[in-house]
Write a structure and sequence with these properties.
By secondary structure, this protein is α/β, with parallel strands linked by helices. The chain is built from 16 helices and 21 strands. Helix 11 runs parallel beside helix 15 and helix 12 runs antiparallel to helix 13. The structure holds 1-deoxynojirimycin. The site of 1-deoxynojirimycin has 9 residues, from loops.
Length: 505
């Protein structure tokens, strides 16, 4: 929410809306970066790690926000961008001046381009710097130079940044592309390099900060996850793992056909794996980088309520820590726009410009709407009025194309309220040891649905999620109905498309 009318959501807007989170049952908030930044990548290009971006407010606003959160029992998780800074950061401005500058070795330089490493946003990851006649590494945008973690001074700086915010009261960090901080030039590893564990432990294993919650954005195989999240490792509490997002796409913008069964199989694999290795799993369907599940995998027109609630039961009653992205709690679908001018995201614009003219524009816009991060970063839709209640100024990104129909107020007033369903899910998690701590057991036989059990001592819960088409589901234990999104009150029987129901022994 935009509290000062400049069209951009801000910290005071968050503070003003905390009661919404309390009502939903949320007990921690992860904020994407709100530090000083030229903002070429929505704040993931930081120019000062210790201050707040003007657009979002001041450090005093931040202090008021965290104190209001803590009063309500809500914890605050800040985003820590440790792999790169903005090219406008003082360190880089100094570093690029000369090879003798004390900050030069804070970044990764080579006399010649040494390899074909690519920027995640497209093109070579190396950029020429005239003053030193060298190339610097940027795994993301040109204006996001990678820090050189091999340099102990860089590691000390980042520890200081962590300590600064912990001293101000933050409860945890979401660590942006953390697995990029260690690279291996010999073997060509741009991320998941050999010193990742050592660096992570140096950052978070210190006794002053050991107690805080950390979730690393780390795409990595099972072995590395065991290492980085193991209870005895002093590295991370948990990671975000993205297998369930890669289904249905080739790269960010390439669509391939897929079924929800594939997602179920991935969830089952990770539930079993994390259970066996005693790891904490993270549960999420949407975030600021990923297109909405209900639009991508479901049917957000005829079955929007059913999809939103079925995916909620499918994910958030599993074992792990649930993360909800703003708008998900009332079934916000993707807006989809026909005009590229309504997209601001650096990755989207780069992709559009590289493909423009090579395929019909309407086909290209389909790919953009499928993959673009701006297709779900739209201003929040609170109620049906000017700017859907986001604020009075012209909004920083286009308003949602369906904001008049789908907004929090409308949803709450509806008999089919996604918000009410989310509350039930969260209440059940809080009340039930089986859901929070219990074992997971997949009892699905065949395809087209997902049935699983959660058990702790005598408490047993059965979650049944039917997918796209009507189906008869059998061979389930005959337990008592808790809640659901359809008419079925029996575990065994006919389920409508995207119907879900939860039962208790
Ligand atoms: C991952 C973040 O989630 C994304 O939004 C950002 O563009 C990149 N890391 C680079 O920091």
């Amino acid at each position: 929410m935009d509290a000062n009318g400049d069209g951009i959501g801000d910290l005071n807007g968050i503070t003003a809306k905390l009661d919404h989170l309390t009502e939903l049952g949320v007990n921690a908030v992860w904020l994407s970066p709100c530090y000083k930044s030229p903002n070429i990548d929505n704040g993931y290009d930081i120019s000062d790690y210790r201050d707040i971006m003007d657009d979002f407010g001041t450090l005093d606003d931040w202090k008021r926000m965290i104190s209001e959160m803590h009063k309500r029992g809500i914890k605050l998780i800040m985003d820590l961008v440790a792999n790169h800074t903005s090219s406008e950061h003082f360190w880089f401005k100094e570093a690029r001046k000369s090879k003798d500058n004390p900050y030069h070795d804070y970044y990764v330089w080579r006399k010649q381009i040494p390899n074909d490493w690519q920027s995640v946003f497209g093109g070579s990851a190396w950029e020429y710097n005239k003053a030193t006649d060298e190339y610097y590494l940027h795994s993301f945008a040109v204006a996001q130079p990678d820090l050189n973690w091999e340099n102990p001074a860089v590691r000390r700086e980042m520890c200081d940044v962590v300590d600064y915010w912990v001293n101000l009261g933050v409860d945890g960090f979401r660590c942006d592309v953390l697995n990029y901080i260690s690279k291996d030039f010999n073997t060509g590893l741009q991320f998941n390099g050999p010193r990742l564990h050592e660096f992570t432990k140096e950052l978070f294993g210190r006794k002053e900060v050991k107690h805080i919650f950390t979730v690393g954005e780390c795409s990595m195989g099972t072995d590395k996850i065991v290492d980085i999240c193991g209870a005895d490792r002093d590295e991370l509490t948990c990671i975000f793992q993205f297998d369930h997002f890669d289904v249905g796409r080739v790269g960010r913008f390439g669509i391939r056909s897929h079924k929800i069964d594939e997602i179920r199989d991935i969830l089952v694999f990770w539930q079993n794996f994390t259970q066996k290795n005693n790891l904490i799993y993270t549960l999420f369907t949407d975030n600021h980088d990923q297109t909405n599940y209900i639009s991508r995998l479901g049917n957000d027109k005829e079955y929007r309520y059913e999809c939103a609630t079925m995916f909620a039961a499918m994910f958030y009653l599993l074992k792990g820590i649930p993360f909800i992205y703003q708008g998900q709690e009332f079934g916000m679908p993707q807006p989809n726009y026909d005009d590229i001018e309504l997209f601001d995201d650096i990755e989207t614009r780069k992709f559009y410009n590289s493909v423009k003219g090579k395929m019909p524009n309407n086909e290209l816009m389909k790919l953009i709407n499928f993959g673009s991060r701006d297709n779900f970063r739209h201003p929040m839709c609170w109620y049906n009025s000017k700017n859907y209640g986001f604020g009075v100024g012209d909004t920083w990104l286009a308003l949602h194309s369906r904001g008049g129909e789908v907004n929090l107020e409308n949803d709450k007033a509806s008999k089919k309220s996604v918000f009410e369903f989310y509350k039930k899910i969260i209440d059940l998690r809080k009340a039930s040891k089986a859901i929070r701590l219990g074992a997971f057991e997949n009892i699905t036989v065949g395809n087209g649905y997902f049935a699983y059990l959660r058990k702790f001592d005598d408490e047993e819960i059965l979650v049944v999620c039917n997918f796209e088409t009507e189906r008869e589901i059998t061979r389930l234990p005959e337990w008592g109905y808790l809640f659901g999104n359809g008419n079925n009150r029996q575990p065994n029987g006919k389920y409508a498309p995207y119907e879900t129901a939860i039962f208790k022994k």
